[in-house]
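Hi, here's the filled form for the chain we discussed.

Project: internal
Contact: R.S.
Residues: 332
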Amino acid sequence: MIDEPFDLEQEPLEKGDLFDIDWGGDGADPDRPVRAHVLAALRPSSGPYQPPLDALLALGDVDAATLAELGIGQEHVSELVRMLRDRDLNTSMGDDPKGWGPSHALDILADLDLSAHIDDIIPVLDLDFDRFADAVVVMASKVGAPAVAPLRAYLEDQNRWVWGRNRAADALGDIVEQHPELRAEVVPMLSDMLSRVEELPEEVATGVMGSLVDIKAVETLPLIRRAFELGKINETMYGPWGEVLKTLGIAPDADDPLIEESHRRYQERWDSQFPPEMLENIRAMQARQQIEQARAAAQTTAKQRKQEKFRKEKNKRKTASASRKANRKKRK
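And the returned structure, exactly as it came back:
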């Protein structure tokens, strides 16, 4: 049975089960999306989609090759962005193929020029959709300069949920990696954020720090160290202070007390996130997977050997047959 889209404006603010999409709360919990921002990111449908875009709502789960055959291109960017942020489509439930529309729009947009539209795509960071958020980071980094200002505005907005802001920091770092000419603009921006680390949630501080490390902004090392000293960094995301130094090409000082302190925090958080019984389960699962992989590899190898043996026997028979025929001709 195909369910109707639910009314997001009337959806309860309470958080659902662990693996449910979080449609946002009242903003009291910075770790959750904010419902008001989710409603702004997912706009009410403003009408039907014209061909060829209407085909995206009937396809269901298809591959990229099928999407490429539809002839959707640069002239459709505005409508693709509208589909990406269409509230009715994104809240479509059950087996309705139109629920795939925003995902298809996202895949097509990835190959188009979004320079004039990136500020209309960044609000997707407000959604608890990992695939969409990851794609926005890639799109923004590809666009480069036009994405810097809207990403900065998002990153500095203290009312946004922390993981959207974390992704915005990632995108700014990726922009520098793909557009080195923007380094002089982005590094001071991220440095300024980190200089106010006391005001930043841990997830945001970690994202900003991580981007500076990724782009090897060694000149910001005092700010990065201070963030570690204040305990504003989640060490499980980029490693403890000593590992960050190594990433930056700096040999850690064995006498530096921050090395031990940061590693202690890292280990404590790791142990709390992954208690021994969970790790045992993970190891058991990995062991089973390795056994299955080894068994599959052995079966493949056995099959290949059998095929090779069959091929050699076949060639041997052909050679023997040809030899017999040649001998018969000689006798004649």
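Let me know if anything looks off before we file it.
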